[in-house]
Amino acid sequence: MNQTESQNNIVAQTQDTSPFLPATATGLLVASVIFGYVVTMLFALAGIMSSSTDTGKTVGDLILKIGLLVGTICFVVPAYWYTRRENKSIKAIFRFHPVSSRTILFSFVLALGLVVVTDTIDRWIAPMINSYLDSTIGALSPELMSDKILEKMKEEFKITGFMSGILLILAAVFAAGICEEMLIRGMFQGALEIKMNAVWAVVISSLVFSFIHINPWGGVQIFIIAVFLGVIVWRTGSIIPSMIMHAMNNFLVIVFNNLDPETLAWYGDEKHIEPAAIGFGILLSIIGSAGLWNSSKKALSQNIMGSS
Questions:
Q1: Contact 233, 296 (CB under 8 A)
Q2: Is residue 86 part of a domain?
Q3: Which residues, in sequence order, are CB contacts of 191 under 8 Å at separation 6+?
Q4: Which of 11, 180, 214, 246 is most solvent-facing, going by the fewest CB within 10 Å?
Q5: Chain centre distance of CA 111
Q6: pLDDT value at residue 172
Q7: CA separation for the pair 233, 221 (Å, rounded)
Q8: Spatial distance between the Cα atoms of 96 and 87, rounded to a whole number of angstroms
Q9: Which residues on neighbouring strands pair with residue 268, listed in sequence order?
């Protein structure tokens, strides 16, 4: 072992591995979200200003995608900086604990099933939610009507070129999957689990996750996915499974949003999903949930011992 490795080991051993207090974690969460959104908005303004001409629309779209990427990364910057400043372990605070290959496999299975199940639920309840939002938020301006908002959301996930696609995948799949999980399920939920019942920790972190997306039109779907992610992180003691599930969910959203509707006829249309697809989604969700639950018994026992 060389001198550099020895020094690194000494530093790792002296780092504080205890979670932040809930109040500290909440303050870091608020600061991180604000910082991320401010950066994103600055890029958004630059993108809008650049889109005044036909040529500028392509440039503007790239600026918006770059802003989405940089802004998403910035969501975790204040929390990461403060963790380093306080000489706390990045691995422990953000819960980058290793998991088995079996856990990773079932994470993919559950992610695929949840996409179908939550999409089904969303299509069932969307008419009621959209009707309510149109009578409240939509009454303020025609641009705030559900059909207008949903169309704009779809446009944000449209791939208009090679660089546009690369930036969108980097932002929505990798950056969101890593940074949002570090902040919400890693640091914040980890702090809550020390001071309260795991159920409340998962529910609160899921509500916060839904709120920061500022998307009441898809809030129920986001919340359901967030609950599953929260439970899995609590059960495994690691954000690696939730990072995989989060990234895969966003990737499939991008894929579905950019395929021709006729290509997805086997899956369904804008109003309903085919029964066979729903059944397959439920089956994958059951298999994935059971597999993750059973494969993480050891991690759960370690979490309970560590918090007692």
A1: no
A2: no
A3: 19, 20, 21, 22, 24, 25, 26
A4: 214
A5: 12
A6: 95
A7: 19
A8: 16
A9: 273
Q: How confident is the model at residue 141 (pLDDT cuts 50, 70, 90)?
A: confident
> Are residues 131 and 265 in contact, defined by beta-carbon separation less than 8 angstroms?
no
Cα four-point dihedral sign 126, 219, 194, 15 = positive
**CA distance linking residue 216 with residue 203, whole number of Å:** 17
- Map residue 7 onto helix, strand or coil: helix
Give me the number of domains the chain comprises: 1
The token duo for 221 is 């779907």
With tokens 């399920």, the residue in question is 185
Range of the structural domain that residue 182 is part of: 92-307
SS3 138: helix
Average pLDDT over residues 26-34: 97
Q: pLDDT tens digits for 79-110?
A: 999 999 999 999 999 999 999 999 999 999 99
With respect to residue 172, please indicate whether it lies within any of the assigned structural domains.
yes
Q: Which amino acid is at 98?
A: P
How many of the other CB atoms lie within 10 Å of CB of 289? 18
Residue 217 DSSP label: T
- Residue 267: φ, ψ to 5°: -85, -40
Q: Decide if 234 is inside a domain.
A: yes
Task: Kindly tell me if the per-residue pLDDT of 299 is higher than 80.
Answer: no
Note whether residue 47 is domain-resident.
no
Length of the chain equals: 308
User: What is the model's pTM?
Assistant: 0.88
What's the token pair of residue 70?
């940089």
* 255/157 Cα distance (integer angstroms): 9
